[in-house]
Design brief:
Layout lengths: L15 H24 L6 H14 L3 E2 L11 E5 L2 E3 L14 E10 L2 E10 L5 H19 L7 H14 L3 E2 L5 E3 L6 E5 L16 E4 L2 E3 L5 E3 L6 E3 L5 E3 L2 E6 L2 E4 L5
Antiparallel strand pairs: 1-4, 2-4, 3-12, 4-5, 6-10, 7-8, 7-9, 9-14, 10-13, 11-12, 14-15
Bound molecules: 2-amino-4-trifluoromethylsulfanyl-butyric acid and cobalt (II) ion (CO).
Cobalt (II) ion (CO) binds next to loops.
Length: 259
């Protein structure tokens, strides 16, 4: 029988000075996301938004974390309507009024990575989109609230899943959140579903990118032929929110906010 050893989660704890750098990297992410949100309008292309993002990242002293990551070709992931995550910016992808747009940005600053995402609509949202966006952001907040010392990773996952399923929606199980630091993806994987009281014990110094992806219909997704874009299997709308969060002895601190 395989015995599960304690303390083998592989989660890298960060010192306070490292969390300060992660805060700076993430503040650039947050600033760029807010700028992009303000640029959402009918007629703009996702390619133009990617260029705006890349320029702003560089102006802030960072570099894009996604570009070149496993061959990803852009600075921004931008996923429209039934697209879940990892949509690639394109010159011929023109936004139209009412589109639900999920934008995900990664920034490297001084050797550390920031990562966050949000969903918003072009112009006024339909009730369907507004409700989905509110529940997905709410699920992220519920998850973050559990990110405190002595809780376990499963407490985060469970809080997200419960919030989403209580609203009648589905979490996407094929993609997960992650630890973050010098690398974009560090242990642990953070599923958006799970059981309370399970998984590694959370400790001060852990930094987690928590990122619920929520579909109105089934949680199943498929990947398009471009090898990146994940779409809902049933064509239903999807939303995505992500924050990078430091666990401190006082509780969770959201790093991906503008400074
Ligand atoms: N926030 C996403 C993630 O953590 C975005 C990664 S896109 C990639 O996986 F291009 F870098 F893969
Ligand atoms: Co992420």
């Amino acid at each position: 029988m395989k015995k599960k050893l304690p303390g083998k989660s592989g989660i890298i704890l960060k010192a306070d000075w490292e969390i300060d750098i992660l805060r700076k990297a993430n503040s650039i992410v947050a600033k760029v996301l807010q700028m992009l949100k303000g640029q959402l309008s009918e007629g703009i292309t996702t390619y133009e938004l990617d260029k705006l993002a890349e320029n702003e990242i560089k102006k802030c002293g960072g570099s894009p974390a996604f570009k070149g990551y496993k061959g990803y070709p852009a600075s921004l992931c931008i996923s429209i309507n039934e697209e879940v995550v990892h949509g690639i910016p394109k010159k011929d992808k023109v936004l139209k009024s009412g589109d639900l747009v999920s934008m995900d940005i990664g920034v490297v600053y001084d050797g550390y990575v920031g990562d966050a995402a949000l969903s918003a609509t072009v112009g006024a949202p339909s009730k369907e989109a507004a409700d989905l966006i509110a529940v997905t952001e709410g699920a992220l907040i519920k998850g973050i609230t559990q990110a405190r010392p002595k809780n376990r990773l499963g407490d985060i996952s469970h809080a997200i899943q419960r919030h989403v399923e209580n609203a009648g929606y589905s979490v996407v199980k094929q993609f997960v959140g992650h630890g973050i630091g010098k690398s974009l993806h560090e242990p642990p994987e953070i599923p958006n579903f799970g059981r309370k009281g399970r998984g590694p014990v959370l400790k001060p110094g852990m930094v987690l990118a928590i990122e619920p992806m929520v579909n109105i219909g089934s949680g199943d997704v498929k990947i398009l032929d471009d090898g990146w874009t994940a779409v809902t299997a049933d064509g239903s709308l999807s939303a995505h929110f992500e924050h990078s969060v430091a666990i401190t002895k006082k509780g969770p601190v959201i790093l991906s906010v503008p400074d």
